[in-house]
Amino acid sequence: MRGRAGWIVAIVFAFLYALDAFQGLSNLIGLTQSFASVDVAMPGNAVFTLVGLIVVPILVYALILWGTRRLRAGSALLVFLVGFAVVAVITLDLQSLYRSIVPFVI
């Protein structure tokens, strides 16, 4: 990214993507504790979907940061917005997949 504006865009979106990754981490920790509190093992597929909620925002941000390194701030802003929308869609898909694996609420 070129200039100070590009770095400001990258830092603002780093916060947003990190917030999404933190929500995935809190889901993983909270649901693991919920399963442990009732002495039930969490299915392996459910763990992988919860880990995906953490990994996807970080991976998408890293790819976008690398891909926009030569773009101007306005173009980078649009790419980060599209990437954030993609992360939102993947997050909803993973949460839906988790609900299909673990249909009951603890």
Search tags:
single chain; 106 residues; mainly alpha; transmembrane; transmembrane helix; membrane
Task: Provide a short characterization of the protein structure.
The chain has 106 residues and is mainly α. The chain is 83% helix and 0% strand.
The largest pleated sheet is described as: none
- The topology string of helices and strands comes to HHH
Integer tally of domains: 1
Structure annotation, total helices: 3
Distance between the termini: 45 Å
The dominant shape is elongated
Average predicted local confidence, pLDDT: 93
- In helices, the fraction of residues equals over 70%
Number of strands: 0
User: What's the alpha carbon Rg, rounded to whole Å?
Assistant: 17 Å
Strand content: under 5%
Low-confidence stretches: none
Structural class: mainly alpha
Transmembrane segments: 45-64, 76-98
Keywords: Membrane, Transmembrane, Transmembrane helix
Protein model, in words:
The protein has 106 residues and is mainly alpha-helical. It has one domain. The protein has 3 helices and no strands. The mean pLDDT is 93.
Can you lay out the helices and strands and say which pair or pack?
Layout: H1 3-37, H2 44-67, H3 73-101
Helix pairs in contact: 1-2, 1-3, 2-3
Transmembrane segments: 45-64, 76-98
Keywords: Membrane, Transmembrane, Transmembrane helix
